[in-house]
Amino acid sequence: MTLSTIICIGMAGSGKTTFMQRLNSYFRSSKKEVPYVINLDPAVLIVPYGCNIDIRDSIKYNKVMETYGLGPNGAIVTSLNLFSTKIDQVIKLVETKNDKYEHVIIDTPGQIECFVWSASGAIITESFASTFPTVIAYIIDTPRNTNPTTFMSNMLYACSILYKTKLPMIIVFNKTDVKKEDFAREWMTDFEAFQTAIMNDQESNESANGSGYMNSLINSMSLMLEEFYSQLDVVGVSSYTGDGFDSFLKAVDDKVIEYETYYKQERERILREKEAKEKKRKEKSLSGLMKDLGLNDKSSGDSKKQENNNNSEVEVISDIEEDENDGFVEPDIEETTDNEFKSQREYTFPENDRLEGEITDKSYPDLQKRYQAAFESQAKPASSSVAEDIAKYIRQ
Ligand SMILES: Nc1nc2c(ncn2[C@@H]2O[C@H](COP(=O)(O)OP(=O)(O)OP(=O)(O)O)[C@@H](O)[C@H]2O)c(=O)[nH]1
User: Fold this and answer.
1) 7, β-bridge pairs
2) Best label site of 142, 199, 248, 300, fewest CB within 10 Å?
3) Residue 355, number of CB atoms within 10 A of its CB
């Protein structure tokens, strides 16, 4: 069995959380399958579905605001940053579930830009995508996108996410119990129908929208979007009634195959290119450093070896920690509102490592020693004349 990941992204209020709740219950009732559920929204008050991993267990959003003096969005980004420092542990934990689960479903913050455009959002997405076949479900509030201009803006956002994440994407028109997604399908396949919608919109808003600039911009963009539409699967669902979830899961299966046949190779190629570039950059900066230190080629070769040796010994913080607790700690039951789901929780950060993410001597007792050893092995010894000069200077 191969685990695949579905990351739900969408504008605030598009219905991501309700969609996750329905998807979770749909898996259980219709597919007789239990999905592995992750909540990455640190600011949500109540999560109405059972979570296996909840960012709120590790990071207290209110405390992040207080501690760092941040506003709501800054605190979401900072919370994600803190969480992303431990993403390797989360991935390792999820990997151990490979035999038991088929799907991991992930809810993201409603403030879409906090996740999509932040470094941590990229790290989290990338970590999942490089370990499991990963699909983006872009959730759209259908009734609110009946205006062609709003529709176009939303599609451009989806387009930018597709090109940023380089992952297969399913456009999910949610709330079809209120408004069917047919109009959107038509706009996505028939350029003239979309032009007509724009013209109608222009006529009805003539007084408010005097200049035709916006509409001509939209016209040209819609041509560009044709290419984007061709890469998408489109489904209409109602998270209220459960309508359309069959098609959604079918689309997920198709996209997983697409991931395996196309995206995976493409990602690996990009990764190889990145690694080669990084290697070149490191070599260049190392030779620059050696030159600055006045070392000749032979010694620089030795130093390179030494550096490589040191690098191979360096562990990431979480590796050190892992030896101690393997990523599992007791969940903090009292502090959350959704106690009924708490028993499923599997992952929080260790208590002394919460929030500030500060590396203390207590948490990592040998870190200081290792830094010292690395420093001593790398540092250039001061010549005796320099030492004398320094001593003279101190005596003065
Ligand atoms: N009619 C209808 N309403 C829905 C549907 N899905 C969600 N809603 C409503 O849309 C509103 C927003 O839903 P949420 O699930 O909270 O949306 P969200 O995207 O998670 O919101 P944020 O996390 O705040 O960004 C709520 O009032 C839901 O009840 C649906 O399929 N049909």
Assistant:
1) 106, 136
2) 199
3) 17
Structure-block tokens of residue 34: 């239990």
For the whole model, what pTM was predicted?
A: 0.72
With a threshold of 0.85, tell me whether the complex ipTM lies above it: yes
Please choose from 19, 140, 239 the residue to mutate so as to test ligand 1's pocket, defined by most ligand atoms within 8 A of CB. 239
**Sheet-wide strand order for 134-141:** 53-54, 36-39, 103-107, 4-10, 134-141, 169-174, 233-236
C-alpha closest to that of 51 among 347, 348, 349, 341: 341
Taking the centre of ligand 1 as the mean of its atom positions, its distance from the CA of residue 239, in whole angstroms, is 8
Distance, in Å, from the CA atom of 118 to the CA atom of 122, rounded to the nearest integer, reads 6
Are the C-beta atoms of 60 and 354 separated by less than 8 Å?
A: yes
Largest CA distance in the chain: 86
pLDDT tens by residue, 143-178: 999 998 889 889 988 988 988 888 999 999 999 999
**CA of 20, closest atom in ligand 1:** 15
Q: End-to-end CA distance of the chain, in Å?
A: 74
- DSSP summary character for residue 144: G
Question: If you search the block for the tokens 């980004």, which residue do you land on?
Answer: 77
- Tens digits of per-residue pLDDT, 215-229? 677 777 777 787 788
**Which residue is closest in CA terms to ligand 1's atom 7?**
15
Residue nearest to atom 6 of ligand 1 (CA): 15
